[in-house]
Amino acid sequence: MDIQKVGVVGCGLMGSGIAQVAAMAGCQVVVHEVNDALLQKGFGRIHGSVAKLVEKAKLTSEQGESTKARLKGTTSLADLAPCDLIIEVIVENLDAKKKLFAELGKLCKQETIFASNTSSFPIGEMAEASGRPDRFVGLHFFNPVQLMKLVEVIQGAKSAPAVVEAARAFGAKVGKTPILAKDTPGFVVNRLLVPLLHEAVRMAERGDATFRDIDIGMELGCGHPMGPIKLLDYVGLDTTLSILDGWHQRYPKDPLFTPSELLKRMVKEGKLGRKSGKGFYEWEGDKVKG
Ligand code: CAA
């Protein structure tokens, strides 16, 4: 099962990154968004990233141009029908994802493999909604997709081994190291990372240390490229809260998953981190100000 034609549904931060690395690896990519304005915004992000990679000699200008030429935008799901693999990267809302996969299940050729980039939902329910649970996996990429070297391949209870293998080969084709994980909350990375980020917020909330010192502690003490609070800002406070909320609903008795008041308050105030320009830190594009 060699994957040549890839559909990406959702062209936000993660979707645009996934579409870009697939196109850089030589795949034909069809990117779906709900309207032209969001498509244009996503393509702007891709073109900016390609330009940066060309500027840094990570791509030649010819490779940059051919990458862009392999990407097509659409607002019609029907255009995804002939894809070998479709990766869903829409809003973290289980009902919306199930509805999308039910529709794709009717539209797409029988062989199409479906994958979700969800960071928090079990893939089993989406797999059932698609009507083809044997051809369904999780493919969980990391932010920024263009630079991070990992992809988690999530094997659902009904995923066919050949489909898991095809997903793993696709992950390697786009330059990532694939790891296999079962369909458990947070898979491998988020199950460890989200409690770390959350505990850092709780430490700041209790006044154990300033958020800057917490970050310096983990950057210099453990060699993390970004301390947990900076990484929380980078990933998004809202994204992290929604992951915690989902786990809290499923495991209400586990205090590890009970969202902190400070995190909830900051999200309510619109302090979402990098994406809103302010979280714990102030941001200018991809960088912390000052
Ligand atoms: N495309 C192209 N180039 C990019 C880019 C992109 N999307 N993003 C950054 N770059 C460029 C930068 O502009 C920079 O270029 P210059 O040197 O010209 O300024 C270069 O790449 C390196 O970036 P930085 O200077 O910021 O260098 P860095 O060494 O600090 O690397 C980083 C940045 C890779 C993000 C690093 O800080 C890092 O690894 N941070 C941790 C990220 C992480 O943990 N991600 C996982 C989040 S969890 C997740 O995603 C899962 C989930 O479900 C929530």
Protein architecture, described:
It is a single chain. The chain is of the alpha/beta class and 290 residues long. The protein has two domains: 5-182, Rossmann fold; 190-288, N-(1-d-carboxylethyl)-l-norvaline Dehydrogenase, domain 2 (Orthogonal Bundle), CATH 1.10.1040.10. The chain is built from eleven helices and ten strands. Strands 3-2-1-4-5-6-7-8 form an eight-stranded mixed sheet, with helices on both faces. Strands 9-10 form a two-stranded antiparallel ribbon. Strand 5 (113-116), helix 5 (123-130) and strand 6 (136-141) form a beta-alpha-beta unit. The chain starts with a strand and ends with a strand. The mean pLDDT is 96. Acetoacetyl-coenzyme A binds next to helix 2, helix 7 and helix 9.
